[in-house]
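User: Once you have settled down, look closely at the record that follows, taking as long as you need, and be ready to discuss the fold:
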Amino acid sequence: MMKTRGFTLIELLLALAIFAYASASILKMVSQSAQNTSMLEKMTFASWVAQNRLTEMRNELIWPPKDNLKGEVEMAGVTWFWRQTVTETADPRMRAVKINVFESVDGVDSTYELETYVVQQQQSSGTGRGSP
């Protein structure tokens, strides 16, 4: 009787199971990478919205009032909603500013939060640089 060389059915099934497991792991990794990229993109745009709002507030050149402001802005084809909260601190010349950015108008889950402190600027006396 002639002996043939080859794989048995058990060996083939085992190899197929190993291949299926490896393929599923790779597919899961690619899927998670895509989700992470999407989340990172959202976080980046939301941080830009918050930083833009902070810059607008600073450019107004007024001491920020202790109140809450809301607004919306479009960036990257998405409408972002922001809420600015200004609160007092222990130092009367300093205020805490918190800007939350949301993807939905209901403002439930914040995509990004920026918190900083602003200091009240001293009024110039006219004797500083640039004065005659």
